[in-house]
Write a structure and sequence with these properties.
The chain has one domain. A hairpin with a 2-residue loop joins strand 4 and strand 5. It is α+β, with helices and mostly antiparallel strands. About 25% of the residues are buried. The longest helix has 10 residues.
Length: about 150
Amino acid sequence: MAKGFVEFSGLDPRTGETGTFRLARAEIDRVRRYAPERKGLDLYCVREIVRNPQVAFQGVRAVDDRFGERVQSVELPDAEGLCLAGVPGSRVAPAGGTERPPPGFTFTVFTDRRLTVWGWYWIESDRSNPACPIGWEQRFDRRIWPKT
């Protein structure tokens, strides 16, 4: 295990093989201390989506409307960056237990080329494919999973 990181297995959509994803412990601590409670609880969705993404993209141009801006520690666009996405079966509820994911939203996990997770977000779903975030054609260079 890499020092300073939590590691977990998931699908590397570039190869279709199992890959080792990493998330900085400092980022987990920051989210638990300063972000809304829901953001920390959604860490459980991160693992579910990287283990079984319904769709994945390479070439991250934008996370939201801020095309070409710095997002956390990543300069966009990132031609090698990945986004794994889908609708998880459930999410952890603030009161304990689980609840349904928010309707009309896709859970997205962003990584660099080394599979280091740098962000996770609920983004409105594409109406024609609910596993994809809305505007995916503008956000990413290409769809790489599932392989066609």
